[in-house]
Amino acid sequence: MTASIIDGKIIAAELRGRVAAEVARVKSEHGVTPGLAVVLVGSDPASEVYVRSKHKQTQEAGMASFEHKLPADVAQADLIALVQKLNTDPTVHGILVQLPLPKGLDTDAVVNAIDPAKDVDGLHPTNAGRLASGMPALSPCTPLGCIILTKSVHKSLEGMNAIVIGRSNLVGRPLVQLLLNENATVTIAHSKSRDLAKLCAQADLVYAAVGRPEMVRGDWIKPGATVIDVGINRLPGAEGKTRLVGDVAYQEALKTAGAITPVPGGVGQMTVACLLVNTLRAACAIHKLAAPAV
Ligand SMILES: Nc1nc(=O)c2c([nH]1)NC[C@@H]1CN(c3ccc(C(=O)N[C@@H](CCC(=O)O)C(=O)O)cc3)C=[N+]21
Ligand SMILES: [Mg+2]
């Protein structure tokens, strides 16, 4: 038996189409154009790639896209001043500060400066706290994407055993909360967990988000389980190129899993699509419109 492949490209494109339709409706019915501001500090090549694809997809969905590039040696106060300006800019409904920030900048202080109503990354403690309390919140895009991909396989996650490997603020922790909202039973594992293979073997749903290339092996996976690979690791490939691999040993896991996401073409695609969803939701909330149908 070989696993079916969960096609993030197709699922993300379909989601972006629904966002675009809602954006068109909100524009024509209410005269509101949702706007996303992305702040990139320094010049990490991988970050440049993500920011470019965010810009393109935002515009394709009919939303306004604002890019702000700052030098790696920008003063903390100047970065915060930009965030504050975006907070009060009525054309901006979503603010994303690309992470990680260059050394010397205080990430917590920058994230705290974002208006929680415009925090489309769901990183502000107000949104993280609301999510953890079961209240409506802007939730981080990658975990939202993971849930949508899982639901493309399972209509309901109720009572399923899920394991989340990784506990970052951007992925692992909020993903745990979203899974709890779906009534899954959740195990939270991380780099210090003992006997990860055994914990994994009990899971119907495996979420690998540790940032270690191919750490999750095929024989850890319960036969038929759904595997969502959040990792994006750049390894040296042939002819001086880089090669992207996930946190799961994909070829091995294909043999035991029931369904699995590829890297690239899995979770990464959904992250950007969900960013558009969050920007649309933020714009509707800010303008006191009904929540959009996506
Ligand atoms: N404040 C903040 N929010 C983020 O959401 C955030 C961030 N900082 N910093 C970096 C990570 C990473 N991230 C990705 C977005 C899209 C792809 C993506 O489009 N991946 C494609 C192609 C990848 C490629 O070819 O390089 C795929 O997996 O198919 C991947 C990763 C968002 N992040
Ligand atoms: Mg991917």
TrEMBL record:
Pfam families: THF_DHG_CYH (PF00763), THF_DHG_CYH_C (PF02882). Keywords: Amino-acid biosynthesis, Histidine biosynthesis, Hydrolase, Methionine biosynthesis, Multifunctional enzyme, NADP, One-carbon metabolism, Oxidoreductase, Purine biosynthesis. It catalyses: (6R)-5,10-methenyltetrahydrofolate + H2O = (6R)-10-formyltetrahydrofolate + H(+); (6R)-5,10-methylene-5,6,7,8-tetrahydrofolate + NADP(+) = (6R)-5,10-methenyltetrahydrofolate + NADPH. The keyword Hydrolase applies. Residues 140-284 form the Tetrahydrofolate dehydrogenase/cyclohydrolase NAD(P)-binding domain. It comes from the Bacteria. Residues 6-121 form the Tetrahydrofolate dehydrogenase/cyclohydrolase catalytic domain. Its EC number is 1.5.1.5, 3.5.4.9. GO terms for cellular component: cytosol. NADP(+) binds at residues 166-168, 232. One of its GO terms (biological process) is methionine biosynthetic process. One of its GO terms (molecular function) is methenyltetrahydrofolate cyclohydrolase activity. Pathway: One-carbon metabolism; tetrahydrofolate interconversion. Homodimer. Catalyzes the oxidation of 5,10-methylenetetrahydrofolate to 5,10-methenyltetrahydrofolate and then the hydrolysis of 5,10-methenyltetrahydrofolate to 10-formyltetrahydrofolate. PANTHER family: C-1-TETRAHYDROFOLATE SYNTHASE, CYTOPLASMIC, C-1-TETRAHYDROFOLATE SYNTHASE, CYTOPLASMIC-RELATED. Belongs to the tetrahydrofolate dehydrogenase/cyclohydrolase family. This is Bifunctional protein FolD.
